[in-house]
């Protein structure tokens, strides 16, 4: 009650913030006459002057009014598009590192040019993030008319570009691209070996278009770069053959709400009998247990043409929010292979993670982040908690007059679809354009077949080609046009009403069911009623819709039965609509919890990732002396640890034989100092061991003086990458089973942090050890090029040892050393036996 009174007296938080931006808009407007007097040549020169002021330390906040005025005038001259006052407000909100909620058709693409130009003055680069390649290319080309007029460079990062093209795009003042391309480039850069191979600069400022889609809807799917694992694919077909023999009533429990499946005791016994094993939960049989459950999920929870499609012999994921095919994406943990086995297509080998990051943690690395969308306010809490982003709702340029009608609820799907087909047919006869939003490809095709029977011409949009998608959606406002599309298809493209349509009532939106998220429903409604246009919207629901079925349609079913309603009769009730929205809130809360839990687990990985990637950059940037110091520190740490353990064992037990054998073994294992039996007879002192390692490094320096420290750099990075890849696999295994700790009254998240830290510490030690193992076993071989063969000149040095690498796969022709017996005199001329000298 007090909060309501406070809002009436002082306005909402949103209204109070918008009021503070009023003077900013007034300042911009006061400069309009001044910049209109500029010649075209004055604009780039003035931007260059302002860039120098920023480099000298002037705040971009101080320059905002003038820059916004320059951008507005550039838009008017180049594109005949003058920013409205509400668009200036949107630009100021974005510059402030907030999310601007702007209704569809309010010109978000143009709004972004204001803060983009202002923040580009820093020279550190601005990223504009879109949901697909088509929009990235379109927006960059469209808005570059403003940017180039002002003397700023524009780049676009698209799928399939080379590293050189990417580097040039990131080097521009403003870079457009998709969230996937930006994220994957970050991961790929952290797998490179040399600084000049990096394509991205430091992450400075990003504006995320359709921010709710990218930072919330896609946040449950991390970006992963993977390589093929060595697992056999035969098990997937074997597990798939078991599923038809399991009885849903007795053998397993299905929870559609939580999208989980588990075996009953009867189901476990049946699986054990089929597989011929005594205990499915024996650690030795953990693979069977895992793959049986994944096969069950594939058959019982994942539906063809809803969750995935089969296209050209491949299982392709369908994005549940956009209806788009997610090319190149695969489900993890063997689920994708289980689906391939189910659909009897080729089962691809499972992949091993080489690098990964969540969108949450990627975008939180920017110095400043902002976003824009038509629907964000319903997720304001999540934006604040996860990204520390406030949501500001920007007023529309013209009043909203769309008529949002109450939902119609039918008994079943058949009755609902008949009513939808009838409504669409009537609207088509009237000449009104209709956009029908569906939640899956399957439902789009079902409705399409009904309209074909009624001979209603229509377009079906399954969002397989973005260019075609945008074209179809752009024409959806023409007289009599009927378009069937997944709820989010064509997002980012305005639907402009054709001639005479306003008089007919504008575009009609018809939703075939409610989505789990209110925001997705609002996005569909938002396609109508742009810039004060007339329009209407209505949702048709059935009691057996997924949302209704899972979240409380029992009471409604009883009411409809008591009222004696026929199948084709619908009820229209505001209380029912409210109950549905409450169900959506519960689902939204559950999905938020899932994303938050994913982030909490990934935060542990993110801390480790930050350390490793920071170390990689340090190694890549290090000067020769720093690299030597790094390796020498590794040597001292290893030797100190070994000889301290020896002294400790002597003083504690008085028996040094076992300790001596351990130290001897480790000296040979790490530093290649000789056979264990020889070292045991005469174990060197710590200083003598250090001298022996120095001698090895001396030989390396002598053999390759120009490449000495580069050899260090190569093996440091190689060792780091190998061990990090193995660590990621170990963390995946840990994450998979950590939930079981809850049964032992332990917090799985805390256990994951604790054990993950221990694994990380072990990995850091292995990086040091494997680097030294490689360096101390390195053999230099002379390289002879064919064209110089007669002169026998030494040209380069090739590395061998330290495992197979990309460089090792491209070895040039080498001259092999002569074969020498272990007891023969060493060919180096030292007078020692080969086994005691170079053959050690």
From TrEMBL:
InterPro entries: Helicase_ATP-bd, Helicase_C-like, P-loop_NTPase, SEC_C_motif, SecA, SecA_CS, SecA_DEAD, SecA_motor_DEAD. One of its GO terms (cellular component) is cell envelope Sec protein transport complex. Residues 787-840 are annotated as: Disordered. Its cofactor is Zn(2+). One of its GO terms (biological process) is intracellular protein transmembrane transport. The keyword Transport applies. It comes from the Bacteria. It is a peripheral membrane protein. Residues 412-588 form the Helicase C-terminal domain. Residues 89-257 form the Helicase ATP-binding domain. ATP binds at residues 87, 105-109, 494. Its main location: membrane. Its EC number is 7.4.2.8. It catalyses: ATP + H2O + cellular proteinSide 1 = ADP + phosphate + cellular proteinSide 2. Residues 3-572 form the SecA family profile domain. GO terms for molecular function: ATP binding; metal ion binding; protein-exporting ATPase activity. Keywords: ATP-binding, Cell membrane, Cytoplasm, Membrane, Metal-binding, Nucleotide-binding, Protein transport, Translocase, Translocation, Transport, Zinc. It holds the Pfam family SecA_SW. Monomer and homodimer. Part of the essential Sec protein translocation apparatus which comprises SecA, SecYEG and auxiliary proteins SecDF. Other proteins may also be involved. Belongs to the SecA family. NCBIfam families: PRK09200.1, PRK12904.1, secA. Part of the Sec protein translocase complex. Interacts with the SecYEG preprotein conducting channel. Has a central role in coupling the hydrolysis of ATP to the transfer of proteins into and across the cell membrane, serving as an ATP-driven molecular motor driving the stepwise translocation of polypeptide chains across the membrane. This is Protein translocase subunit SecA. It comes from Desulfobaculum bizertense DSM 18034.
């Amino acid at each position: 009650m007090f909060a309501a009174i406070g809002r009436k007296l002082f306005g909402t938080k949103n209204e109070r913030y918008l009021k503070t931006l009023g003077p900013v808009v007034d300042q911009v407007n006061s400069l309009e006459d001044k910049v209109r007097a500029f010649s075209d040549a004055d604009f780039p020169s003035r931007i260059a002057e302002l860039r120098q002021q920023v480099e000298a330390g002037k705040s971009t906040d101080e320059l905002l009014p003038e820059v916004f005025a320059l951008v507005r005038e550039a838009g008017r001259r180049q594109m005949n598009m003058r920013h409205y006052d509400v668009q200036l407000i949107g630009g100021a909100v974005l510059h402030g590192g907030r999310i601007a909620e702007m209704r569809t058709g309010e010109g978000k693409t143009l709004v972004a040019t204001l803060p983009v130009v202002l923040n580009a003055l820093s020279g550190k680069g601005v990223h504009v993030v879109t949901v697909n390649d088509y929009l990235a290319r379109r927006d960059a080309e469209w808005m570059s008319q403003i940017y180039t007029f002002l003397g700023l460079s524009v780049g676009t990062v698209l799928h399939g570009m080379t590293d050189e093209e990417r580097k040039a795009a990131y080097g521009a003042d403003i870079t457009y691209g998709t969230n996937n391309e930006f994220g994957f480039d970050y991961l790929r850069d952290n797998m490179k070996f040399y600084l000049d191979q990096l394509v991205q600069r430091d992450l400075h400022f990003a504006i995320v278009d359709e921010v709710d889609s990218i930072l919330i809807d896609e946040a449950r799917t991390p970006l992963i770069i993977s390589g093929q694992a060595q697992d056999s694919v035969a098990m997937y077909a074997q597990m798939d053959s078991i599923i038809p023999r399991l009885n849903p009533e007795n053998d397993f429990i299905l929870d559609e709400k939580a999208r989980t499946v588990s075996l009953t005791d009867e189901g476990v016994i049946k699986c054990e009998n089929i597989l011929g094993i005594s205990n499915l939960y024996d650690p030795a049989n953990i693979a069977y247990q895992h793959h049986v459950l994944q096969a069950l999920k594939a058959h019982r929870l994942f539906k063809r043409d809803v969750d995935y499609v089969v296209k050209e012999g491949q299982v392709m994921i369908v994005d549940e929010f956009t209806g788009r095919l997610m090319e190149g994406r695969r489900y993890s943990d063997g689920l994708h292979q289980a689906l391939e086995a189910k659909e009897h297509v080729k089962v691809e080998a499972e992949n091993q993670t080489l690098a990964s990051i969540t969108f949450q943690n990627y975008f939180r690395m920017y110095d400043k982040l902002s976003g824009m969308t038509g629907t964000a306010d319903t997720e304001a809490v999540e934006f604040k908690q996860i990204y520390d982003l406030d949501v500001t709702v920007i007023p529309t340029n013209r009043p909203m007059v769309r008529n949002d009608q109450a939902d119609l609820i039918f008994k079943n799907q058949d009755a609902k679809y008949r009513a939808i087909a009838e409504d669409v047919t009537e609207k088509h006869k009237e000449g009104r354009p209709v956009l029908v939003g569906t939640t899956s490809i399957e439902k789009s095709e079902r409705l399409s077949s009904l309209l074909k029977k009624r001979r209603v011409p229509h377009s079906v949009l399954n969002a397989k080609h973005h260019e075609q998608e945008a074209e179809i959606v752009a024409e959806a406002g023409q007289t009599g046009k009927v378009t069937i599309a997944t709820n989010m298809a064509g997002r980012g493209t305005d639907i402009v009403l054709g001639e005479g349509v306003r008089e007919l009532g504008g575009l009609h939106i018809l939703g075939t069911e409610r989505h789990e998220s209110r925001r997705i429903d609002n996005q569909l409604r938002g396609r109508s009623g742009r810039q004060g246009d007339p329009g209407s919207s209505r949702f048709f629901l059935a009691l057996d819709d997924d949302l209704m079925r899972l979240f409380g349609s029992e009471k409604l079913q009883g009411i409809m039965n008591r009222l004696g309603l026929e199948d084709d009769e619908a009820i229209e009730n505001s209380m029912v609509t409210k109950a549905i929205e409450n169900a959506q809130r519960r689902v939204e809360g559950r999905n938020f919890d899932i994303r938050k839990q994913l982030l909490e687990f990934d935060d542990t990985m993110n801390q480790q990732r930050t350390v490793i990637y920071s170390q990689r950059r340090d190694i890549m940037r290090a000067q020769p002396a720093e690299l030597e110091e790094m390796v020498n520190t590794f040597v001292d740490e290893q030797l100190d640890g070994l000889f301290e353990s020896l002294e400790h064992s002597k003083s504690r037990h008085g028996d040094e034989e076992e300790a001596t054998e351990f130290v001897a073994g480790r000296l040979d294992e790490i530093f290649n100092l000789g056979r264990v039996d020889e070292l045991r007879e005469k174990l060197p002192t710590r200083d003598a061991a250090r001298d022996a390692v120095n001698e090895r490094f001396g030989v390396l320096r002598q053999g390759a003086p120009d490449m000495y420290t580069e050899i260090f750099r190569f093996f440091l990075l190689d060792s780091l990458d190998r061990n990090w890849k193995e660590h990621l696999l170990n963390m995946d295994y840990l994450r998979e089973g950590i939930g079981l700790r809850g049964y032992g009254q332990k917090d799985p998240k805390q256990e994951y942090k604790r054990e993950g830290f221990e694994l990380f510490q072990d990995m850091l030690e292995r990086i040091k050890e494997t680097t030294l193992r490689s360096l101390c076993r390195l053999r230099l071989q002379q390289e002879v090029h064919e064209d110089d063969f007669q002169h026998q000149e030494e040209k380069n040095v090739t590395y061998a040892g330290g495992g197979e690498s990309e460089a090792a796969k491209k070895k040039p022709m080498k001259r092999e050393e002569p074969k020498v017996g272990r007891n023969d005199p060493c060919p180096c001329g030292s007078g020692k036996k080969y086994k005691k000298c170079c053959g050690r």
